[in-house]
Amino acid sequence: MFRFGCEARIHASDAATASARPGASVKVLVTGGAGFIGSHIVDLLLAEGHEVRVLDALLALAHSAPPDDINPAVEFRHGDLADPDEAARAIQGVDAVCHQAAMVGLGVDIGDAPDYVRHNDLATAVLLRAMARDGEARRLVLASSMVVYGEGRYRCEADGRVAPRPRAAADLDRGRFEPRCPACNGPLQPEAVGESARLDPRNVYAATKVHQEHLCAAAGREAGIEVVALRYHNVFGPRMPRDTPYAGVASIFRSSLAAGRAPRVYEDGRQLRDFVHVRDVAHANLAALTAPRLPGPFTALNVASGQPRSILDMAAALCDAHGDGTRRPEVTGDYRLGDVRHVFARADLAAEVLGFAAREPFAAAIAEFADAPLRGPA
Fold first, then answer.
1. 11 in helix, strand or coil?
2. Which is more confident, 15 or 322?
3. How far is CA 325 from CA 58, 260, 370, in A?
4. pLDDT score at 22
5. What does the buried/exposed string (b/e) look like for 107-129 if buried means 16 or more CB atoms within 10 Å of the residue's CB?
């Protein structure tokens, strides 16, 4: 049986040294490997000497056509992970699975719910069954998300650490965007959220990511599969899909600038997030796939820069880096009821468990992203 004998590292040179050791090269199934994050993971795995098989449904929500940047060194399969036969074929002969396939983003409305459940929850359940029956791949790295936390962590001066209730539409209509203390209705101070925080999904996408984690945790206990759930914060970088409500906010802003429009910032723009570059996310996956030891059968880790920034700051930085820099973000006061106000991360546990820390400088990464190619609209 395959043993995870190489030591997890951050830099490509270190990982190349590790993968050169006897038995260190692995064969990895990357679900969703033709997508934004998945394709970067595929490229990094291949660069480190690993074999890669990709299974991707090429959903129209993310792909207008089969992408032309799929690495020719991969074994590519076009198929639906929720199909038990496809999953069983895809899992044969691999040592580990990097599960990136998902329907992402807040979406349009509740009408998206069946598609989110099928592509996220059902597909994950089918994959786990295939892994348990096949018995060879004993580690699964799951692409989870910071959305599992709902609102982040807050502290009230009078009542200490509290969990605010979902924001009411009536308050948002009046421009009252900050959550209030559920005990005294006083103001709250946002804090970095750690992995031990309670899970509190506030929209359909978030609910499916929590369910994915729970399914994987059950598989870890019952089938002996080591699971690492990487809770991505706001990922950005080249190859994001453009002009779709299923993309992240960075892609939406970048698409607006490419079309000659100002980025439209919801609420007052002061929402705090953690923006992490896709190359850092790929390195986190490499570390999770190759770590020699894990704390237990299920490990959840934030993948983040550790540096909170406001949505308005991100939009302004993109404006400064794109074109002549004269276009400025438009703060609209609009809102989406499923959005949360503040969520940003503690990133120390990933450093402790995997030796991972984000390394891409924000300013340089934004400058690159401002002119980087995006995927075509679906």
1. coil
2. 322
3. 35, 12, 11
4. 35
5. beeeebeeebbebbbbbbbbbbb
